[in-house]
Specification:
Elements (H helix, E strand, L loop, with lengths): L17 E3 L8 H7 L10 H17 L4 E6 L2 H10 L7 E6 L2 H12 L3 E6 L8 H10 L5 E7 L11 H11 L4 E5 L11 H4 L3 E5 L10 E6 L1 H7 L30 H18 L1 H22 L6 E2 L11 E5 L4 H12 L1 E5 L14 E5 L6 H17 L8 H9 L4
Parallel strand pairs: 1-11, 3-4, 3-5, 5-6, 6-7
Antiparallel strand pairs: 2-8, 7-8, 9-10, 10-12, 11-12
């Protein structure tokens, strides 16, 4: 007779792994297959035509008729590119803050010799557009040259209203540029560069655009390009003009292109723009986000889980930041080690290394994500709540299922 009383613990993490962090996101097999090829001819032929084809599709995702440029780099790279092309040393920039990524953009500005004024709106609510407008009205000398707005701060998951900020800037009659960081939001949350009045927008390939990290984008309009005429921060590498409609191919990248990223990006943009359609991509993300919120709202408990952003209207469809005092790190570790689910760490919500830092985690729900993927992610989180005896409400999975089923 078999005795199982001393059976060793069996981890259920073996098998498919799910990456539910706010970037890099899950890579479609199609994108990975498109990249799996020998290095191409970089002087003539198919790669050149492929690269040309990316520009109109990138504009379609950003909803702009203006300019799109590609940089080999991450979000920090295009933070710098956006500022270097539009500012001179000593310029003043206004940085409304709803999370730590605003701090990062501000630090890049300081490194370029710009003056920075931060308007801190905390990390649980959106920017107050009226307060930004009032600050611009007070700037009668026109010192403020740009307003740097993180559309969705990936640390807090707060989403701010770009169109409302533009309306306030116009009502104030102020000539500052409106710049939007769309790293987390582009291809997930609705963003309309031209209709909403953003002069510059930045994004990356590794989140909603479902391509491995390493390529980022700057979109800019004619007003922003006129600022380039007076900018003294720009160097040859960051200059966006040679990269825009270049006569010689290598000028797209100021050197050798990111060849295999381009193949992957081409496949991803085909999926987003030509197959599903940008509007449908936004709609899919909105439904899946509502499913996640419904689950977490059911699980919320005075001594346990709380969504960082209380109001749904101010939450992102791409990332959700969660408060779980003292238990955020244990929950993440359990999900990773026991069921193969990787959740995002809390960033910028508390100093790293402090006990408070362990009280946050984030769920990324961006890019190549389906109803099945979402339900699996939520099931893993509920299993962790049960296994770790974390206080929580009941009915989370049922609430999410109703949204997926179209009943809520």
């Amino acid at each position: 007779m078999r005795d199982d009383s001393h059976q060793t613990h069996t981890s259920l993490a073996h098998g498919p792994q799910i990456l539910s962090i706010p970037g890099p996101s899950i890579m479609p097999d199609r994108v990975l297959r498109a990249m799996h090829r020998p290095s191409p001819n970089i002087y003539q032929g198919a790669l050149i035509d492929l690269t040309h084809s990316l520009i109109p599709d990138l504009k379609a995702v950003a909803r702009t008729e203006h300019n799109a440029t590609i940089y080999i780099g991450n979000g920090h790279a295009v933070w710098e590119a956006s500022l270097a092309n539009t500012h001179s040393r000593g310029d003043l920039v206004l940085v409304p803050r709803t999370g730590t990524f605003a701090d990062g953009w501000a630090d890049i500005a300081r490194g370029l010799g710009l003056r920075v004024e931060v308007m801190d709106f905390g990390n649980r609510a959106p920017m107050d557009a009226a307060a930004i407008g009032q600050r611009l009205r007070e700037d009668t000398a026109g010192e403020i040259k740009s307003v740097l707005v993180v559309h969705v701060d990936t640390s807090s998951s707060v989403k701010s209203d770009i169109a409302a900020i533009r309306a306030e800037m116009d009502a104030a009659g102020h000539g500052a540029l409106l710049m939007a960081d769309c790293m987390a939001s582009m291809g997930c949350d609705r963003f309309e560069m031209d209709a909403w009045g953003a002069d510059v927008a930045i994004a990356g390939c590794q989140k909603g655009m479902m391509t491995p990290a390493g390529v980022s984008f700057v979109f800019y309009n004619d007003k922003a390009d006129r600022a380039r005429d007076r900018a003294d921060c720009v160097t040859g590498y960051w200059d966006w003009r040679p990269r825009t409609n270049p006569e010689v191919y290598f000028r797209y990248f100021n050197g050798t292109g990111p060849t295999h990223h381009l193949y992957g990006l081409r496949e991803a943009l085909t999926m987003i723009v030509h197959e599903e359609g940008v509007e449908h991509v936004w709609a899919r993300h909105a439904v899946l986000a509502r499913a996640l919120w419904s689950a977490f709202e059911a699980w919320e408990h005075p001594d346990g889980l709380q969504l960082n952003v209380p109001e749904r209207a101010h939450r992102s469809n791409a990332v959700t930041s969660v408060r779980l005092p003292e238990r955020g790190t244990p929950l993440r570790n359990w999900c990773s080690g026991e069921v193969g689910l990787t959740l995002g760490i809390g960033i910028g919500m508390a100093p790293m290394g402090t006990p408070e830092w362990d009280g946050f985690f984030r769920v990324g729900h961006m890019g190549h994500l389906s109803g099945h993927t979402m339900m699996g992610t939520l099931g893993g989180i509920e299993a962790a709540l049960v296994a770790l005896d974390i206080p929580h409400g009941e009915g989370g999975l049922s609430a999410a299922a109703k949204v997926i089923a179209g009943l809520a």
